[in-house]
Amino acid sequence: MPKPLVTGISPKEGYPGTKVIIRGEFLGKDEEDLVAVIICGVDCTIRAKWEKESRITTYTGFCKGKGDIVIVTNSGGRGTSSVGFQGLVKKNIGPYEETCTWVDEDSKALLTGLKRAAVNELSHDNPLNISLDDSSKYGMDFFDKEFPNSSIDMTQENFNASRFLLENYQNAKFEDLRQGLEYMKRNIGSKTINSTDNLLKNNISSFMDAIKIMKDIHWLSSNDKKNEFTRSIELMFKDILKTAHRIYDQDLASKDRADMIRNSLQILDTYKSLIYFPQNVDKWLKLDDYEQIITSYKLAKMQLSKAEPATRKSTLFAQIKKDLDSSVLEVQKHILKKLIQFPSSPDEQKFLIENYISIENIIAIEGNKRNEVAFNPAWYCLTEEKKWFIQLMLECRDMHIADEKVSLAMKQSDDSNNNNSKQEQKNSSDVLKDGKNLSNNILNNTEASKIQVMTQIPHERNKFIEELCQMFFDIFTDYWRLGSMYLGNLFNNLPSTNNDSIKANEYHGLVGEILETFCNIVRAAFIPHTFDKSLANTNLLSEWPIQHDAQIISQILPHCLKVCRLCAQQIFSLDIQPKQFECVKILIYDLRCECLVTLLSQPTREILATLGFEEPDWIVDRDVDSENNSCLITNLPSRFEAKFNRALSLCKEYVLDDKKGEKSLFKDPVFSKKIAMLLYGISHAFMKRINRFMSKEDSLPKFVQMSRSKLLLYLYNNLTVCKRKALPNIWQTIANHKYQQFDQVIKESKKNLKELQDMLLKQYVSEATKPIVDNIESNLYAGRYDFSECSAPLTVRNYVKQIIMSLLNIHSELFLLNKSLIQAVLTQAVKEIYTKLFSLFVNIPNFCVSAAIQAYIDIFCLKETFKLYTSDESKEILHKILKLIPSNSFEQNKSLMTKLIGDFEKGMQPYLAVFHTQPPTSSVNISLQSNENK
Amino acid sequence: MTSSQNGKKQAPIYKVIMVGSGGVGKSALTLQYMYDEFVEDYEPTKADSYRKKVLLDGEEVQIDILDTAGQEDYAAIRDNYFRSGEGFLLVFSITEQESFDVLDEFREQILRVKNAEDVPLILIGNKSDLQNSRQVRQEVATDKANKWLKPYIETSAKTRDNVDKAFFDLMREIRNRKLSENNKPTGNRRDKKKKKKCTIL
């Protein structure tokens, strides 16, 4: 027979133990011929079943990868295959998978197969090979009755053929039966010999052994007459039995042990999560995976509680439980540690707190009743955060204090050359401490050079307040959120408690403490004099370097106020209880007051220090009032107004408007009064400034080139304009801004103004007329003029002309600067001139005729010239003068006098016209101009 | 080298894949062709492999048949099988309309896996011995085959009717395809090969 050739495999791949059908050619003549089946190098012969020459079935062994199928037969030898088998391997083989490859017990390799092989031939279901008949007419009872103690099993002793036939082939035809018999005969004939042979052949050694044993028995029995050998055999058997029992017991024991181990393995597997929990917890903690921890812990707890009582009592379980609990406590500790790691967002905190509580809850499930006054992580977090928060604020403050000290030190080293300034600073710092009479004291420092140009760099404290408020607001908002969660019991899993009101009080205490600290810090930094040092504990005490420069303070404070107010507004919108908010409210109020004071002091200082010392202050402008009276002014009033307004608008912007939840200003009459005083101080400062210029206390800056009289006029005009325009505007603004109690201020200011103006005018008049009056005497006697002895008059004397020219100067000055003053000033001047003349004429002992005529003409001309400016008083004086002149010779010289007066009027006409024009009219303006040009 | 020295040439292998829904008779056709036996019992196939030498038009060739599973459970692993195939017998049962209808899907899968417009393929209507319970008319099947430009053969695994024809026709198709593929893009390469051989000799 040729070599076996495998041409087909079904299936072509599979796991170990797969049943495969191998097809091909020459796969063996019969069962005996088949020697080996090797699939992928694994011998599968044991389970192989030869079916026919082209077909064998078997089960694959443990093979991996693709390999050939080799059939070995006696007749053909080692075969080949044109197809291959692919062995697959299950990956998930582990200690809990049962992967035994069972060997079929009915395999012929086992001894028991011996009998079965023989019997199989007979116990064919259908030995006659004719169709079996199911529809038996008779039941089993019938057969049992008819054929007692008989069987239809051919292998049994009590086999009864009749019953067998009746039961199985009741309806078969006789012919069929005969054919069946033939078939059976053929079958038996072909197989019995074969099978016996096979039996012997296959088990030859067993038979040999059996024969040997029988021989031994025969020999023993023949030798041992007393049948003793059976005894020994019996003993031996007993021994064997014992041993067998022992072995069996051992087997049982080892099986038990195996079971036990498997059992424990299983338990370990079941409680794997329990045992590994502590290790896993560390891992999860690193990842912040609390959810995982909680779930695992819950699971573990459940497993623990579900575990059988017996197991629960075991020490291992106790240990596990201990580990579990301790590790969970560790987790809780860890969470708490994390919880007080600030800064963190409320969501984060909530997350942590909830996790903590979840764990707590699971612990509580176990039966340990939850303690009512149990530790509350949220509360813990709140208190810890409060501590941290306050610390943070203090740190912020300290940092900025240090910064400011450094910058201050640098500045001082710059200033060190100037010892004076230091002294001044000391003075002003003392002033600041008093917090009162600021403006008055600053007056000492009015040297304009002292005022340094302010730096635009934000001051250290501005930076500080911004940072503080930003930080405060950020953290506080978060804190508040956490707090409301705490109060509202918004944490999942937290059992609600009924002491909510206590909780709320406690919490509000915390909030209050924070706010208090904040307020104190701000207070200490910005308004130290309001800071109650005795109350605050030591670490809150301010170490801020004292700020000397009031100007800088006026810069810092509004900014601070603005930032703080914004912050307070935001905090207020959080619905904080009024009680806790009170300190913030007071702080804001104090800041506002302070700020208002500072802002309103600022212009006073500025006006006193700088107004009138800058070139723009002296730019000349023309002002025309409603009655079309025009006068020349400088920029002083408008600059004053600007400064005043700036301060007011700053106040308005930063301080005045009450915002939601703020204590309104001006409710306190004392404070209102104070503010009113400050307002008054500003206008007062302006007047003081003017006054100082007037009284020559302050010399004019070099760039201002003007005569004293002009200066006085300008100042006068400025005041006029100020009264008319600047002050009303300012009062209006003040009223609009709802300042209180300022009526008195207006009245007082007006009064001051009036007084100052009067003074100015008096000054001007005396200033203007003094040189004229002083000159009259020398002019009267000019050229050694002798009243007792002189030639006939030729014309009006020069002193008259000089008086006229001088007054003309005054007139033109007034006309240019303020026409409305012409009348008043000139009238006054004329009066003084007349008075002087009178005193001079009185002292003339003797008039000659010519002198009398001359004097009369002179006086007459003066009288004519100034007739418009002659008050009743002046007229009287004039009359007295004329009386002093002897008039007896006038009659004869009348023509001469008339001529001389006519000449005078002719010659002086343009000048006289000035005085003869009713002042003030615009037409005069032109004539005056032309006259001056001449 | 060894084979040429021995004077024996390895017979060319034609890889045929049986495709069709479960129970249409793929395994029956295969076994009938391979071993002249008809298996009445139905046992679902996973993936069976057969290979034998046959004479195709006087030339000794090897036919390698991969009998695949029709059941949907194995749909996922079909791609792998299809990839290795050179020719396909798309089998349906003429007594089951549904088995005929799903062939379009099978064909599309084959074309997709082979990434080709056209592959050697024959449409097989099996169980032609059961004319009484026929559900798919011959014309309908022929129409589909014409649409695919493929032959249609009705077979009976039981009576071995047209079984050999089906396999041999498919092998011829594969052979033709192989020849045309070799000719087309490798005209140059073949020359080169020849030259190389010459130098070696």
What is this entry, summarized?
The complex is a heterodimer of chains A (934) and B (201). Chain A is an alpha+beta fold and 934 residues long.
What does the secondary structure layout of this molecule look like, with pairings?
The complex is a heterodimer of chains A (about 950) and B (about 200).
Chain A: E1 5-10, E2 13-14, E3 19-25, E4 34-39, E5 42-43, E6 49-52, E7 55-59, E8 65-73, E9 77-78, E10 80-81, E11 84-87, H1 113-122, H2 140-146, H3 161-168, H4 174-202, H5 204-223, H6 228-270, H7 272-287, H8 290-306, H9 309-313, H10 315-339, H11 346-365, H12 377-415, H13 419-434, H14 438-442, H15 460-487, H16 500-526, H17 550-572, H18 578-610, E12 621-624, E13 630-633, H19 636-656, H20 669-694, H21 708-736, H22 743-780, H23 798-817, H24 822-842, H25 849-865, H26 872-884, H27 894-907, H28 909-916, H29 922-933
Parallel strand pairs in A: 1-10, 2-11
Antiparallel strand pairs in A: 1-3, 3-7, 4-5, 4-8, 6-7, 8-9, 8-11, 12-13
Chain B: H1 2-6, E1 13-19, H2 26-35, E2 47-56, E3 59-68, H3 75-84, E4 87-93, H4 97-101, H5 103-114, E5 121-126, H6 138-148, E6 152-154, H7 163-183, H8 187-200
Parallel strand pairs in B: 1-3, 1-4, 4-5, 5-6
Antiparallel strand pairs in B: 2-3
